[in-house]
Amino acid sequence: MSIISLAGSLQSTLEQKDVHELATRLGISIPEQQDAEDYLLLLKSFEAVMQNIEASQEYIHPSLLAHPTLEPRTFWKPDKAENPLNAWSHQCEFKSSQPTSDLLKDRTIVIKDNICVAGLPTTLGTSDKILSGDGKVPLSPVDATVVSRLLAAGVTIKGSSTCENFCASPLSFSSATGPVHHPLLHGYTTGGSSSGSCALVAAHKYEFPEDERLSDMLTAELAIGSDQAGSVRIPASYCGLYGLKPTHGLVPYTGASSMSPMIDHLGPIAANVKDIAKLLKVMAGWDGLDSRMTPESPLVDQVKDYPGILVQYMNRPLSASTVEYDEVPGPVRLKIGLLMESFDVPGVTKDVKDGVLHAAKTYFGACRAEIKEVSVPMHLEGPIIWTAATRPSMTEWLCQGKTSGYLSHLPPHIKTQWPPTQETYELLASTNPAVVNIMLSGELARDKYAATEAKAHRKVFELRAAYDKAFEEVDVLITPTAPSIAMPHPKMFDEEGRRTSVMEKLSTIVGVTSNTCPFNVTGHPAMSVPAGWASVPDQNQPDRALPFGMQIVGRRWHDEDVLEAAAMFDEGHCIDYRVQMRALERANALRRQSEPPVSSSHVDCSSKPRSVL
């Protein structure tokens, strides 16, 4: 440690009693009077340094300044009638005046409300009073790196999407503005914390001509979310979408609010894998500002051509099939591993377990992929390791805005109130008590488990090695994403208007991320893809079904394998669908010899819901 100068005429309020109080917090005492006086002088010197920085002019890196747009950046808050899912935080119409490519030209996109978009508020899904003492949330002066890159690729940003309170919930009930509703079943979760992002893309995917509430609602084709335990993949699973958590360090996190640097990921959300590949191509690559990126992170001009890789895969030669009137792909290079422990994680429902296993075996099998069962016993420890490796210090990143210890460029306008006030507690206890739990866990860890977080980090390397060992046998691993289909929102208040208990809210989230969070700490790329539909277990909704997802996990820095496996899975579904349709045609022909068979040689499976299991 160096001391640059000693305090002189500084107007400081520090006194010796403050020195002794600080020492008491550390569990020590300073018995010598002269020592206390000397430490007081040193602390005043430190205070002078910090006050000097506070008074200095803010600096924003030029690459984060607002990307030039066609029109001045203005925004508006939609009213309830225009926002029936509560999925929009703010709406706008931002389009680049200086695009550098047309890869995403005229595509509409929504940005999760913990990712900075210059000219928009960044609310983190929480109360204005928590974000700012005066209740006025400042507008972002910066565009996150990915936001500038998306604008340069031709997108139209339609606004920011509602996210969960401090992004600390895998379900969609905790936002300060209220729950985000599933577009297929009002009152049910979309999953979180990228809840609004998935709700809006799903609402765009599904058509609602019979529902006046939703038929004219503004939606988005594409979305960006953040993922620290499954916050892209879980809502993608519940909503029947594709949601990718890339390899850690592939996509810069600069300009987004952190939960913990080792698990921070930004990822794309879309209705098909082709759009995921395009978004990843645009978002990926070293930006020179994000300390999460490593020497393995590619420079922007060295990012793999993910869309091109998919096109090459889809255009490979076909071979004759044993099925009459059909052709299927020849043998494929990817080996598929069913991660068996993931199907026995507590809470995985029979519908999801059987549905994912059936879909994986059927659709990958239709493409002649090699499928085998793989065991990684340590996978069941993954959620424990994730918690111990992140929870002790999460409050420092999430609630206090601490830097990573490495050179970083945090958003200058995000300054949450710390320490929390009683009002902060009441607001969080009413909406998302998980944040209070994070704060309390941090204090407990500081008192009793100071070295345990470091041990958990070492366990992360062990867990990563366990998965890497499995990848010596297969190219991708298959798991269920969320353990069930979407469920109803928990009650936030009882019949008399009193807030419900902590566990009445949080019991619904237990185990939701057990199959997703391990890959946040190990850094492997993972994507949820639509795998099937299951009946809603509600007597009042006897004929309703909701989607569930399958997670595809790949080797670190081999995100293209995940994309290719998703494309293969979809292709296998189409093959299986054609086979079933032709079998039905033959059966009908036998019954009605005089009627010609119905042609289905060009079936588009993209809009066909997979069977309700």
Automatic annotation (TrEMBL):
InterPro entries: Amidase (IPR000120), Amidase_dom (IPR023631), AS_sf (IPR036928). SUPFAM superfamilies: Amidase signature (AS) enzymes (SSF75304). It holds the Pfam family Amidase. One of its GO terms (molecular function) is catalytic activity. Residues 590-613 are annotated as: Disordered. Residues 105-563 form the Amidase domain. This is Putative amidase. It comes from Lophiostoma macrostomum CBS 122681. The lineage of its organism: Eukaryota, Fungi, Dikarya, Ascomycota, Pezizomycotina.
